[in-house]
Every structure is written in structure tokens, then in C-alpha cells.
Design goal:
The complex is a heterotrimer.
Chain A lengths: L3 E10 L6 E11 L4 E5 L6 H8 L9 E2 L4 E4 L2 E2 L5 H7 L4 E4 L3 H4 L6 H12 L4 H14 L5 H4 L9 H13 L5 E5 L7 H18 L2 E6 L2 H7 L2 E6 L2 E7 H6 L4 H8 L39 H5 L5 E2 L19 E2 L12
Parallel strand pairs in A: 3-9, 3-10, 7-8, 8-9
Antiparallel strand pairs in A: 1-2, 1-4, 1-5, 5-6, 10-11, 11-13, 12-13
Helix pairs in contact in A: 4-5, 4-7, 5-7, 7-8
Chain B lengths: L1 H28 L15 H10 L6 H13 L5 E2 L4 E2 H36 L4 H14 L3 H12 L1 H7 L20 H39 L2 H8 L4 H38 L5 H10 L3 H29 L1 H6 L2
Antiparallel strand pairs in B: 1-2
Chain C lengths: L1 H7 L3 H5 L3 H20 L1 H6 L5 H31 L9 H11 L2 H18 L1 H4 L8 H4 L26 H37 L1 H15 L3 H11 L4 H28 L2 H8 L4 H9 L4 H24 L11 H9 L6 H28 L2 H8 L1
The chains are: A alpha/beta, B mainly alpha, C mainly alpha.
């Protein structure tokens, strides 16, 4: 039994016209203690996917379609409500968000907010809970926890706020942490620290980690496996190293081309032309084809399926890729000989 | 926090002085003067002139202003010609009645308004929300004196007989005639009884506005990221709303307290008039009709002073509820 | 078809095209006024020899009848040509606001109600069943049965203690209530905008002086200041309007100043300064138009507020002098007969509530349509 198993997840947003198919049939597998990265541009549906897991979709901001399944240790989360869902939220599955400034409540001290989570999920008395709260603040690398605990969010720097958010997420000793763009709002130097912190606590607590980012660099530093999301669908998935070494899907290659790291600054930056289309209005065929440099006739007509990429043949057995195993790619470049059957 | 409070308080003092000055000059602009109430048929101009001089009305405006301000600062508000007593005593008798009425209405208006507003925000777009929106706007648009009359129409003694209600409330005064002879407990009950309709009127008028404001404020808050965080934490929805939501949603409502205070006092003037409630409002209206200028002067200043203090209180409260203000200022 | 229908019956082409609200309102207005002109034909004819009020009523009747017909006919024809209704594609923020406003049913209802109120006010000489001072008791030889008569088919809203028809008095009273509201807010908004803009734009000592004055005036409960001013001066309609305006301008000034301060920091203002435009030009041509949205909202809500206040003044007997009916004083009249004749106080009060409600609905709709916070979000 996997820690997290998402099957055929479709999360649509109701609009006045057509529904926006923001997440459109995503499969994802995450084992105990494994870290998986989810990469995509804004509009690719990655945040909505993460919110779907804990049922945190904003009212009117999206609905999970029937037929979707999200199982946490075998327990179905779709449609779950009430007490059990609240136990899982923050207890077994915790989440941190992109904007640490707005994600922390401005009128309560950070200590108070962490304490609230500790008391909610741990059978500790008041004093022990307070002790634990201070330990958590130390754990995430906040100096002088006693003093900082009384601070309000606006008194902390961005990095410190995100550390406090992480401490709050760790309060329930979760076995899965969902991190939605945890470093996007931070400076580059702080980003590195936070990523290191995430990696450290993940290893120490043996947590599963789902790290969501638009930045392939960020994800590759932390994750064992990577899923590339485009247009609400997985377009490529596989072990981090293999994807970095040999990206197959043109979109993945585009992402690699438009990233900039220190050692390859002499290479030319090759941005992907255009932008992600509206989720109400995906193009026919492959959703990436209007922007694809290697677009073929077939891409405009038919939508490719997710296929194991390394073998270039045979049916797909485990969608989303087996842990540590091979690659899956959704592209006609690979399956040219199969005739789209 | 302390320096913040101190600065706010210090800022209020010149404002109060300005208010006093404004009152004095507006009143001195008026044609006719205080001596004219002594005018009797057959009175010679000389006698009137004598009265004027003895009242100090002949002196230049600035001198009169200085003299008046000096006395004012010492708590001497002058002498009421109609009531034949010092203005201060007359006002001190009326002020508590107004404060009881106003504070009661303020409390219930904010209590009801906040409850309704939060309920509407949580159930945004529902049938209940639409209905409550209509009801609050209706009361918000209503003249208070008319609502008072409508309530009398339904809840007075004659209404009780007409509609066969099991209850009725007194519609005039602060206590029943002869209430002084009652036992303390019955006397207290009698007073509460007299408070019901005036307080209800003011409450309904104010609560509509409060609810409208709280609804907007809460809708804003509910969409914030930290509400999502609170949910992700595993908090029950009621605690998400009542703790994380309400605490933030109420910050702007504190400002509303300052805004509504003058509005409330305007309301008391009319309500006291309708219910013959012996408070500041009724005193003001009567004194104006009787041209009892010293009372008008002191009363107007007192109303201004209450607003300034109310705003000061709102400012200080703002510092208490919003840590961002509190910390940045001290 | 639509063209001919518009020629025959205004509003019909709109109705046929599914625009129920606009078409229905036009049809209702046109038929209603036509009925009025026919049933009260003697009065309409008599108006030719009447006084100014009669002439105004006559002019209104003619203009609205003609206007509605022309609008419907031309809009019907235009939509035949372009396939679209009128008013589409008007550019600018206010145009966008109007389009958003049109989607708000409640706000449109409020706007319609306001139009009907003012129309009724202008057409009072034709509409009112009786003269305002008409005392039937004396006409019918001292028949006192008409005194405090309950609502009936003759007196739709009953009569007061002088046997005067309440409905007629409400109609005549609307002149005071509705006109004063409009005029006082017009004056206060002009004054408040001017002073607020100067304070916000020039800053420094001018700003301090104006804002301290604002603080002082706003330190009073508005009604208290009003009754003091009104009571001290001889009560004329002029004094009442000035007093209402004088007690309202500070809130407008404060709002405009805030807007100007915020706008001053924005790029387009920097750009205008960099181009060497004069201060006055920047203020009046570039800054103020951007503050127009909130200003319209404040003004609309202010009219409702002012109507209530004026009614309060009249209720206390401090408003426009007795004799001229005003809604507030009519409620006050009914106070003494509340239990015997509920209609005397109730109906004028309803008129106030309805008028104020309409203005508040429109104000709310305008605020949603021109939402300042939305533009703030775009700024961020």
C-alpha cells in the first residue's frame, strides 16, 4: 500500500461558460518516505492538485469530479469530510504554502499558531505542548525560540516566516508533507536554506514529500522523482537524475532550456514561446502542440497517451511511473510506430 | 503601545478645544441673543440694554470667547435661564440617561450586527444571505423616529389590547409615575421595561449597518490564505471562522465603532424626543426651542466631546486588536 | 417587425428581443403616462393656464412620453442594424462600470424607483387626487367624517386630522424631501471635492488647515449640529439646504483627499509631472477623473442619508416651515393620532424608507460596479 495514490484525478472549475479543466486525469504514486516533485508553469494545475488532496479547494474555485480517487494509506480522501478529514489535515498530511506572509494569521503570534496545531493533533498537556512548540521552532532553525514565539508574523523576515510555517506543519508529526511553491516568494539564498531544511526534516522524520514548484532546479535539489505537468496532465515522469540527464518530452526540454544555473551561464537561454492556454480552452490534440518546436501533424489531431518512455513500446502498466523505475512520457515522438491505438 | 495611546490622547485635546471654539462661533453668528428671552411686552429698550450689559453681551466677541472658554475649562458651563439652575447640574442629570441608552444600543447593535454579518458571509450567495441582505438594508434605510413610531404602534399598551398581545412596553419616560414608591427590585424592573423600546429602535437602526459592514469585511477575510492554512491545520470549521476569521474581520469593525458613534448620538436625539426620554438629546431639542443658549452651547460641546472620546476609544481599541499597529507604534 | 412595433408601442421591440427589464419599464412608463394624460385630461388642459408647477408637469409629461417613444423606436432600429442593443462598447472605466451595474437587478430596481419618485414629484399637479391644502371638511359643509378617515377608494392612504388627503400631501411633500436631498448633496460634493482635492494635492499647511476643519465638523453628531444651525437662523429652505451641505462636505473632502494622495503616487501622475503639465491641469484633468467612481458612490449614498436627516429635522419641527408638507413633518403630525389613525404617520414614513432604500440600492450597485478595491487589486 502506497502512502499516497492518486488515480484519474480531475478537478474542474465551474465558470460561466465551459468548465475549466484545470487538473485533467492525473495519476501519481508516492511511497512512504519518498520525495516527489511536481513541476509546471502557472496554469498547469499543480496548486489545484495539491489543494484537492486535502479537500481545501476554495468555494466556487474548483470541484473534484466523480471517478477521481485520492488514497492516503489506502483511505479514500475524495468526498471525505468531518472529523476524520480534520484528523488527517495537519495530523497525517500537512501542507505549506507559497506566501508565508499571507498564509500566517497576522493577529496571532507564530508561537500561538504553532501551539494550536500541536494541541490539536498531539495528546499533550498545556505545558508539554508549549515545550514541543519551542522544540519545533528550534528544529526548523529559528534562533532564540523563546523570544520569537511571541512575535507576530509581520515582525519576522520571509525566510523566518516560512520556517515557522514548516514548524506548524511538523507539529502533527505528519507522514506526508505537501509543499506548494514553498520558496517562490523568497530570496535565492534563503531558498537554498529552506530547501535544505525541508530535505533534512524529511529524512529525519521519514516523511513523504510532495514538492510543487515551477522551477525544475528547486525540485531537482530535493526530490527522488519528478512529474512534469502541462495543461492539467502529466507529460513526463521519472527519476530525477534520468530526467535531468535525458529529458524526452519537448516541454521538459523546454523547461531545461529556460532554466539558468550557475555553471551553464554561457549557454543561451531558450525560453518556451507563448504561454499556457486557458484551462477552459485547451487546444485539440496534444495540449502542448501550439508551443512545441517539434510539432507534427498528428499532434494537432490526436492526444498522445502516457507511455513508458524508455521501452518505446508496449502498454502502460503503472501510470505515473513505478518508484525508482522507468520513465513515462506523453508524446507522439515516442510512439510514432504505434498508430495511436 | 503606551506611546501610541499617549499620542492619540494628546491629539484629541486640541480637537476638543477646536470643537469648543467652533460651537462658540457658530452660536455667536446667530441673529438675536440670549437677552432676548427676557424681552417682555412694554419693556423699555433701556431695560433690555441693561440686561444685555449685565450678561456681558456688549463686550467684543473675542473677549466674550476668552471669558467663556476660561469658565468652560473650569467646568462652569453657565446658568440656564429656563431651568433656573447651573447648566452643569442640568446636564449631569441628563447625561447618564443618554449614556445608558446609547451604550445598551451600541452593545446589542454590534452583537446582532456581527452575528448576522458573519452568518451572511459564511453562507454567501445562499437564500438566507439574500434575505438577510434585504432586511439589513431595509433597517439601514429607515428613519429612526419612524421605526420608533412603528414599534409603539405594535408594542404599546393600546397595541396590546388591540392585537391581544400578552405583553406591552411603556412608550414614554424613564420610569412609571410613582415608581419611586416601589421596592428596589420592582423599580429596577420598571426602568428596564422603559428601556426596551428606545433601545430596540436604536439597536435595529444601527445593527443593519454593522451587519452590512461585517459581511463585507468577513467575505474579504474568508478568502485570505491564512484561513486556508487554518483549515489545512485540521481545525474545525467553526473555529476557523470564529477564531481565525472573526479576529481579523473585526479589525475594520473597530473603526466602524468610531464612525457609528456620532451616528448613534444623532439617533438618540430623535429617539429621546419620541420616547420622552430625559437625556441629552431631549434636553438639546427643548433648549433650542426655548432659546436657552447656555444649555445649547454646553450640550453641543458635550456631544462633540463624546464623539472625540468615542473616536479616541476606537483608535485605542484598534491598537489592541491589530498587533501590526500595536507593534509598529510602540 | 421590431421597427414597426417600436413605432406603435415603446418598449415592445426590446421586449421582443428578450430585454424584459428595459422594455418592460419603457412600456410601463409610456402606458402609465398615457393613461394619466387621458384620465386627467381636464387638468392637463387646465395646466396651460396654470402656474409654474403646472407648466413643469406639462413639460415633463410631454418630454417623457416623447422621449420614451423616441428611445424605443431608435434603439429598436439600431439593434436591427447592428444586432446589438444600445450602450454597448462605451469605453472607459465608467462605461465598464455601467455595464457591470446593468447586470445588478437590485440596483436597477433602485434606479427605476428613483426615476419613478422624481417623475411623480414633477407630475404631482396631475397625479395628486387632491390639492395639498384641500380640506374636504369645509367643502362639504363642516362634515367632520373626513377627519382621520381610514384608507379608502377616495383617500387611498386616508386623511389626517385636518381632513387632508395623505397621498396628495406625500406627493406634494416629495418636492421638499427629494429636492433638498439632491441640492444639499450637490453642494456638499462640489465643496468637499474641491477642498479635499486641494488638501490632498497641495499638502503642507493648506492640507493641515482644511483637515483640522474637517476633523472639527466631523466631531459632531450630524443631527446635533444641524438642529443647532437650523434653530439659530430663521428657518428657510435655503438655510436647511446650506446646513445639510455644511455638515456633509467634510466626509467627501476626507474621501477625495485620500484618493488624491493614493493617486499622486502612481506612475501616470509622475509621467504627467515629467511632461511638465501644470499642477492645476494634473489635478483636474488627470487625478480627479480617477477619483470619480468613489465620488459617485459617496454622493448617491449621501442623498439617501440626507433625505433621512431632513426628515428628522422636519420631524422635530425644525425643518422647512410648517404649512409646506414634508415627509418628516407629516410623520410628526401622525404621532399624536398613532393609535387612532395609524395611516397618518405610516405612509409618509414608507415614502422615506422607499426613497432612501432606492438610493442605497443604487449606491451599493455603483460601489460593486466601480469597486475601488478591485482597482486597488489591479494596482498591486
Amino acid at each position: 500500500m502506497s502512502l499516497l495514490e492518486i488515480q484519474k484525478l480531475r478537478t474542474h472549475i465551474r465558470t460561466a461558460g465551459d468548465d475549466a479543466r484545470a487538473v485533467d486525469g492525473v495519476d501519481l504514486l508516492l511511497e512512504e518516505g519518498e520525495s516527489v516533485g511536481l513541476v509546471g508553469e502557472s496554469g498547469s494545475g499543480k496548486t489545484l492538485l495539491a489543494l484537492s488532496i486535502l479537500g481545501l479547494l476554495p468555494e466556487g474555485g474548483g470541484a473534484i469530479l466523480p471517478g477521481s480517487s485520492i488514497r492516503f494509506r489506502g483511505e479514500e480522501l475524495v468526498g471525505m469530510g468531518g472529523k476524520r478529514l480534520r484528523e488527517i489535515r495537519g495530523g497525517e498530511v500537512a501542507m505549506i504554502f507559497q506566501e508565508p506572509m499571507t498564509s500566517l494569521n497576522p493577529v496571532f503570534s507564530v508561537g500561538n499558531q504553532i501551539l494550536e496545531a500541536v494541541e490539536l493533533h498531539r495528546p499533550l498537556n498545556r505545558d508539554a505542548a508549549k515545550e514541543e512548540m519551542l522544540r519545533l521552532l528550534g528544529e526548523v532553525g529559528i534562533p532564540d525560540p523563546e523570544a520569537r514565539a511571541g512575535d507576530y508574523p509581520h515582525q519576522l523576515s520571509g525566510g523566518m516566516r516560512q520556517r515557522a510555517m514548516i514548524a506548524m506543519a511538523l507539529a502533527g508529526e505528519p507522514s506526508l508533507l505537501l509543499a506548494d511553491e514553498p520558496t517562490t516568494a523568497l530570496d535565492v539564498t534563503v531558498e537554498a536554506q529552506i530547501l535544505q531544511l525541508l530535505k533534512r526534516v524529511q529524512a529525519r522524520m521519514g516523511m513523504g514529500l510532495l514538492l510543487i514548484s515551477h522551477d525544475l532546479n528547486v525540485v531537482s535539489r530535493v526530490c527522488d522523482r519528478i512529474l512534469i505537468l502541462y495543461g492539467g496532465k502529466v507529460v513526463e515522469a521519472g527519476p530525477t537524475q534520468k530526467i535531468l540527464d535525458a529529458p524526452i518530452h519537448p516541454y521538459t526540454r523546454g523547461l531545461m532550456g529556460s532554466r539558468l544555473s550557475f555553471d551553464d551561464r554561457r549557454r543561451t537561454l531558450r525560453p518556451i514561446p507563448g504561454e499556457v492556454p486557458e484551462a477552459t480552452d485547451w487546444p485539440r490534440g496534444c495540449r502542448f502542440h501550439p508551443r512545441c518546436p517539434e510539432v507534427m501533424d498528428r499532434c494537432r489531431r490526436e492526444e498522445p497517451r502516457l507511455l513508458p518512455g524508455t521501452e518505446r513500446k508496449g502498454a502502460v502498466e503503472v501510470q505515473g511511473g513505478a518508484p525508482g523505475g522507468g520513465r513515462d512520457v506523453r508524446c507522439w515522438l515516442l510512439a510514432g510506430e504505434e498508430g495511436g491505438a | 503601545m503606551l506611546s501610541f495611546s499617549l499620542r492619540r490622547t494628546l491629539l484629541a485635546i486640541p480637537l476638543l478645544l477646536g470643537v469648543a471654539t467652533l460651537v462658540f462661533f457658530v452660536l455667536s453668528l446667530a441673529p438675536g441673543d440670549a437677552a432676548s428671552i427676557y424681552l417682555r411686552p412694554g419693556m423699555t429698550p433701556e431695560t433690555l440694554e441693561h440686561i444685555r450689559r449685565s450678561m456681558g453681551l456688549d463686550d467684543p466677541l473675542l473677549i466674550r470667547y476668552g471669558r467663556w472658554l476660561l469658565a468652560f475649562l473650569q467646568g462652569d458651563f453657565g446658568y440656564s435661564h429656563f431651568y433656573q439652575m447651573p447648566v452643569r447640574d442640568r446636564i449631569l442629570a441628563a447625561l447618564p440617561n443618554t449614556l445608558i441608552l446609547a451604550s445598551g444600543a451600541l452593545f446589542f447593535a454590534f452583537l446582532i450586527g456581527i452575528l448576522v454579518g458573519v452568518l451572511q458571509a459564511v453562507k454567501e450567495g445562499s437564500f438566507l444571505d439574500s434575505v438577510l441582505s434585504g432586511v439589513t438594508l431595509f433597517f439601514y434605510s429607515m428613519p429612526s423616529f419612524w421605526l420608533a413610531l412603528m414599534l409603539i404602534l405594535f408594542f404599546s399598551l393600546s397595541a396590546m389590547k388591540l392585537w391581544n398581545w400578552p405583553f406591552s412596553f411603556p412608550v414614554s419616560g424613564i420610569q412609571s409615575p410613582g415608581a419611586d414608591l416601589l421596592a428596589p427590585w420592582d423599580q429596577f424592573r420598571d426602568r428596564i421595561h422603559h428601556l426596551v423600546l428606545p433601545t430596540l429602535t436604536l439597536t435595529l437602526i444601527l445593527a443593519g449597518g454593522v451587519a452590512r459592514y461585517v459581511r463585507t469585511s468577513m467575505l474579504d477575510v474568508i478568502r485570505q490564505d491564512y484561513i486556508r492554512t487554518a483549515r489545512a491545520k485540521g481545525l474545525p470549521e467553526t473555529r476557523v471562522i470564529m477564531k481565525h476569521g472573526l479576529r481579523n474581520g473585526l479589525i475594520p469593525v473597530v473603526t466602524l465603532f468610531g464612525v457609528y458613534f456620532p451616528f448613534l448620538l444623532s439617533g438618540t436625539v430623535l429617539i429621546e424626543y419620541v420616547f420622552a426620554w430625559p437625556g441629552m438629546g431631549q434636553l438639546m431639542v427643548e433648549s433650542i426651542l426655548r432659546k436657552d443658549l447656555p444649555v445649547v452651547l454646553a450640550g453641543t460641546f458635550l456631544f462633540g466631546g463624546m464623539v472625540v472620546l468615542g473616536n479616541l476609544l476606537a483608535d485605542l481599541l484598534y491598537g489592541v486588536v491589530d498587533p501590526r499597529i500595536r507593534q509598529s507604534d510602540g | 417587425m421590431g421597427r414597426r412595433a417600436g413605432f406603435l408601442l415603446p418598449g415592445l421591440p426590446q421586449l421582443l428581443r428578450g430585454r424584459v427589464l428595459g422594455g418592460g419599464f419603457a412600456l410601463f412608463l409610456w402606458l402609465g403616462l398615457l393613461t394619466l394624460a387621458v384620465t386627467r385630461f381636464d387638468r392637463v388642459r387646465g395646466a396651460l393656464l396654470g402656474d409654474l408647477d403646472d407648466w413643469i408637469a406639462l413639460l415633463t409629461l410631454a418630454m417623457v412620453l416623447g422621449g420614451v417613444w423616441l428611445w424605443s423606436f431608435r434603439a429598436g432600429r439600431r439593434s436591427m442594424v447592428t444586432g446589438r442593443g444600445s450602450g454597448e462598447g462605451s469605453p472607459g472605466a465608467l462605461g465598464q462600470g455601467w455595464r457591470a451595474f446593468r447586470r445588478n437587478r437590485m440596483a436597477l430596481l433602485g434606479l427605476g424607483t428613483i426615476c419613478l419618485f422624481y417623475l411623480a414629484m414633477l407630475l404631482t399637479p396631475f397625479l395628486a387626487p387632491f390639492e395639498p391644502e384641500f380640506r374636504e371638511a369645509y367643502e362639504v359643509g363642516g362634515d367632520m367624517t373626513r377627519r382621520l378617515a381610514a384608507p379608502s377608494s377616495v383617500h387611498l392612504m386616508g386623511t389626517d386630522e385636518f381632513s387632508q388627503d395623505i397621498l396628495s400631501r406625500i406627493l406634494y411633500g416629495s418636492r421638499i424631501s427629494l429636492t433638498i436631498g439632491l441640492l444639499a448633496v450637490g453642494i456638499s460634493v462640489t465643496l468637499g471635492t474641491f477642498l479635499g482635492a486641494i488638501a490632498g494635492y497641495w499638502g503642507g499647511l493648506v492640507d493641515t488647515a482644511i483637515m483640522r476643519l474637517v476633523d472639527m465638523v466631523m466631531a459632531f453628531p450630524r443631527l446635533v449640529l444641524l438642529i443647532v444651525i437650523v434653530a439659530l437662523f430663521p428657518t428657510t429652505i435655503f438655510i436647511v439646504i446650506v446646513a445639510l451641505a455644511f455638515t456633509q462636505w467634510p466626509s467627501t473632502a476626507r474621501m477625495v483627499r485620500g484618493e488624491i494622495l493614493a493617486l499622486k503616487e502612481r506612475e501616470f501622475c509622475e509621467a504627467a509631472r515629467a511632461l511638465g503639465f501644470s499642477r492645476g491641469r494634473i489635478l483636474f484633468r488627470h487625478l480627479l477623473p480617477n477619483a470619480l467612481g468613489p465620488l459617485i458612490v459617496v454622493a448617491t449614498l449621501g442623498i439617501g442619508n440626507t433625505i433621512v436627516l431632513e426628515a428628522g429635522l422636519s420631524f422635530l419641527g425644525l425643518g422647512v416651515q410648517a404649512g409646506t408638507p414634508s415627509w418628516g413633518s407629516m410623520v410628526s403630525d401622525g404621532r399624536d393620532y398613532l393609535m387612532d389613525a395609524w395611516w397618518v404617520a405610516t405612509f409618509p414614513g414608507f415614502a422615506i424608507v422607499l426613497a432612501v432604500l432606492a438610493f442605497n440600492l443604487v449606491g451599493d450597485g455603483l460601489r460593486d460596479a466601480l469597486d475601488p478595491r478591485q482597482s486597488e487589486g489591479a494596482r498591486r
